[in-house]
Design goal:
This protein is mainly alpha-helical. It has helices at residues 13-34, 48-73, 82-85, 99-104, 108-111, 133-179; strands at residues 88-96, 113-119, 125-129.
């Protein structure tokens, strides 16, 4: 039978919420252990909503356990870039990476733009990924163009649907008048 570890370290808000969900799912698991031949939530009087809730809690519990174990396994990563720990001066403003830089400098893979920085304490030159104003403008105008395209498409669709409904209504009125 599953048991809750009372010696677990104190968790923050998200961790506590996950452990509460684990406890709820452990109730479902305990039911399975008591009745190995039955499935959880198959008692008399339980409808599809309760079975779905039980399944959801079980999946949530498994996900929470996996997340908690991943957080425990995560180790402190040493800082390799000086600009993360020190003050720095930008020696070359944000620019687009060349093909060679994309292959050799890992910071280029994030956004395709980098800036060169000089750290104050270690006097080391390093690269930092950045977001370009040009790139942001392109992304914005692509979004605006997409929204406008969808607006035109749905406007045409609404107009077509309205005309179709108007023709059906006119045909219905014409048939009613003919039947008189």
């Amino acid at each position: 039978m599953l048991q809750h570890n009372s010696q677990a370290p104190e968790m923050s808000g998200r961790g506590r919420s996950a452990s509460r969900k684990c406890v709820a799912a452990q109730v479902v698991l305990a039911e399975v252990e008591r009745n190995p031949g039955s499935r959880p939530g198959r008692r008399a009087g339980m409808g599809p909503a309760e079975r779905l809730l039980g399944t959801f809690l079980l999946l949530l519990s498994l996900t929470a356990r996996r997340t908690e174990s991943a957080l425990e396994a995560k180790q402190e990563v040493p800082i390799t870039q000086c600009w993360m720990a020190e003050e720095f001066i930008v020696s070359r403003e944000c620019y687009s990476c060349t093909e060679f830089e994309t292959k050799t400098i890992t910071e280029c893979s994030n956004t395709g733009f980098i800036e060169q920085v000089n750290c104050a304490v270690s006097k080391r030159a390093d690269y930092k990924s950045c977001r370009s104003v040009e790139m942001e403008k392109q992304v914005f105008w692509k979004f605006v163009g997409g929204v406008m395209g969808v607006t035109v498409l749905f406007s045409l669709l609404v107009t077509y649907r309205q005309r179709t409904l108007d023709l059906r209504a006119l045909e219905k009125v014409r048939k009613q008048i003919e039947s008189i």
